[in-house]
Amino acid sequence: xxxxxxxxxxxxxxxxxxxxxxxxxxxxxxxxxxxxxxxxxxxxxxxxxxxxxxxxxxxxxxxxxxxxxxxxxxxxx
Length: 77
What we know:
The protein contains three helices and no strands. It is 77% helix and 0% strand. The N and C termini lie far apart (67 Å). The chain is elongated and about 65 Å long. The mean pLDDT is 94.
């Protein structure tokens, strides 16, 4: 389905200039922006999930020691 959207000439000119720089149409530029915004939201949700998991693990087992020194010692053997 197609819709008509009324925007200012100035906004359209900015969108058109940006689209031209990227070798896109205004419609493609808007779709690209929406796709990137969806990807950002998906990544933010993943990060929140990782942080939540980290907090649950910390609450259950406490702060885990840094293993960098152990790894260095292992590599030196």
